[in-house]
Amino acid sequence: MTERSLSYAAAVNEALHQAMEKDSKVLSYGLGMTDPKNVFGTTENLEDKFGSERVFDIPCSENAITGIGVGAALRGYKSIIAHQRLDFSLLSMDQIVNSAAKWHYMFGSQMSVPITIRMILGRGWGQGPTHSQNLQAWFAHIPGLKVVAPSNASDAKGLLLASIFDPNPVIFLEHRWLHNSVSNVASNYYETEIGGSKLRNFGKDITIVTNSYMVPECLDATEYLNENYSISCDLIDIHSIRPFDQKTIVKSIEKTGKLLCVDTAAKSFSVSSEIISRMAENFSQADGVLMQKLGLPDVPEPTSYGLTKGFYLTADDVINKILVMCGFKEKKLPIVRMSEHHDIPGEWFKGPF
Asked: pTM for the whole thing?
């Protein structure tokens, strides 16, 4: 096994190649699948290698093509459907919720729907209310669906391979601000456990639970807090939202006595809300555990550069929240952003699309 640096997009691309090499019944299709930009670079060379019968573009017919994917799954094919925006997938909710998620239960567990639906989410550069929604809580609410959201290139590859060969329908969430981020990725075929989590930072003072793009923001926050305030944090990356690793969170809270859930979505009725609810069932009032959450305001995302400033969470928000939770009276404004502009994550970002 060899490791080398790969971008998140390149890791997704490698996973697609390895899955299609492994099983001739794996198909990959979606809007823009074969266009020059190759879905943010994730589908590069797929059609050239595997042919247009297995890799192809589709019309703007999300509900129909998802239904075809369900039907193909019932005949032994494993479809990977890509939506260049999560928002576009909303047109296929009937097939996702009433067909893919239900089939296994409706037919006595005799059949399953192995379909992977890639949804790209995220914000910035004027994407606005209808192109930047984070609706992971919608999908996590549906019994029968699995939902994953990798935060780095290595997990993007491993979780995508695990999703493709899982017998259940899987919603695979890719934050577009992560596509150009780079990490070490093994070259061999491997799968990352769906239902697991990763402890990204070790500490004793507070537990942070997050996923997707907020993992790098929280890593910046943990470094700043440790260096400037000697506050050490357990940072748990729940790259699997449903099912999620409850045991690791409980074990960490038993050590720290404090929990902060950080979400990329609106604060109300979020994945963070569910995690705090579950933790409240595990700890009594006598345990004295302090639980808080951070999320977006409960309004649609703005479009303009001016209105988005301060709308989204950054490492600064995490730092300020943790300082208050740890007893510091005065909120600090450390400003540890990686970029001078608030609507891009760093100079490596290649947006807008």
From this structure: 0.95
